Amino acid sequence: MADGKAGGTQSGEALLFLTDEQLRKGIEAMFFAYRGFTADPDRILEKYGYGRAHHRAVHFIARAPGTNVNNLLAILGVTKQSLNRVLRTLIEDGLVESRVGVQDKRERHLYLTETGQSLEAELSEAQRARMRVAYRDAGHEAVAGFRRVLEAMMDPDQAAYFHAMSKTLSKKEE
Question: What predicted TM-score, i.e. pTM, was given to this entire model?
Answer without folding.
Answer: 0.81
